[in-house]
What we know:
By secondary structure, this protein is of the alpha/beta class. It is built from 20 helices and 21 strands. The strands form 6 sheets. The protein has an 8-stranded mixed sheet. Strand 19 and strand 20 (512-515) form a beta hairpin. 53% of the residues are buried.
Amino acid sequence: MEEGRARTSRDYRFWEAAAHSPVSRRAFLGGAAASSLAALLAACTGGRAGTTIRPTIAPQQVSALLQQQLQAARSLPREVQLRLVRGFMADRAGQVITVPLGFNYFDGGISHTTPWPYTQDVPMLWYGPGIVPTSGKFDRPITSADVAPTLAKLVGFTDFQAPDGSVMEEVIDPAAPNPKLVVVLVWDAGGNYVLNLWPDSWPQLKGLMPRSTWYSSATIGSSPSSTAPIHATIGTGAYPSRHGILDNFIRFPDGSLADPWSRGPSGLLSPTFGDQYAEAMGPKAATGLFATLSWHAAMLGHGSQANPNVRPVMVLREKGGGEGAEGIAWGLGAQTEPYYRFPDYVNDLPPISQYFPVAEKADGVKDGKWQGHDINSLNFGFNTPARVPFQQRAIEEVITREGFGHHDAPDLFFINYKLIDEIGHLFTASSLEERDSIVVQDANLPVLVDFLNRQVGEGKWVLLVTADHGHSAATDVSGAFPIKVDSVDASLEGRFHATATSPLAQKIRPGWTYLDDAKLKGLGLDLEQVAGFMLDLDKEQVAARPSEVPASVQGDLVLSAAFPAQLLSQLVAPE
């Protein structure tokens, strides 16, 4: 591969099952009379709506429009269907499910939320000399839900029962001692697709593989593939369909749509392993987290909301930031501050400007900049490679001062590094900026390992390296067509004659669309009509600048499936 060039979509074949649907969509749409969704569910289940039995449906029993939507949904690979089901909870999600075609993605702030492998496949590597077997690669499928029960077995805690996950037994050596510290390290957006765009940029992680136990078929297990739900899955051993953190936005019982952490940890419906472990161990063990956003806190747990006697140490960067936004300094936001203990001393450490030379050197050009960017202009340097050593220094301070690795029982410490994700959003996963970020993030692995050896002791700790999702490459690399959320919204409202003051769509998210039920009824519409329109969306309708879409592709469809959420029960049998 040429230096400085990311791999292209031609190097990947996993997504091609999504690229063609056997359904001739437009043939179904002309004048199709809508029929009740309840009639379809009854036809599918012998009158028992909500079951997963899938007998043949007589075509005359349902509308052509709804048949088309069901066929498109059932044409999705079974694993994709399963991810959709695992990620859905009716009272918190939208009413119409959407699945992008191929590498296409909904572009409205998030560009990595799909059920397809390029955003689902993640590294899963367990390293712990003297504790974790050096068994190398295992091909069997595992998911992020399997992390929590594996942590429990590693530390010898038998009271935790994961709702969905199972122990990665290959990680467990029955003859090995319990670790003094287990560190869970998440490279945010560092999924397999992103790493494989730059295969020569992570030699340290590759070097650990033969000395570890790692899984080549690890996935996050559910869709949407966004930050908040997957960190909750890692922490709880449950999928979003149980733990309730479906996305970076959810519907609350009062009908409002908001960040799932906007009201504190209560949005997380399931206990985490960290919750149960901290309560059971008391002062015998410490738990803590160092990350960026409250979305990451679900790896750790509910803090004192679960148990007033437990207030674990936690460092985020939400001081001065809004919902889902990084702040200007290490600190907790109002929604997390009451439940966790923030160590003020981390803001007494040297400023990030001390690490600007790391960013400057990352591109190999000594010019005071990074890839031509003024370093300070990128979130005061925090969205540059300087972030990694700056965060590492603070992590070391917390682990040392709080005595992690030196309690009577094993300690737990969770880390999220968000640089790869932020740079992917700013410049795409195939950018040189992303390459530099991966290089610096990878180079920090031996720094962390050396620190753990000094602080905890060789042969006394375990490190898990994983990710919460992948990311999107530039469109000329992946062949993707970005589906602009604002354009979809305008097309939807225009088609059904809604108004800006009384919109039909409350919010369009990458995995589904939230509709105003009263407005839907007032317009005389049903869900299958809205889903049918969305399934037929083409490039001209969803483009940021429709006039720039070549005439030859204007009518190309951009979704693999769109259907009323109730149809999820007709897709896959129970696990």
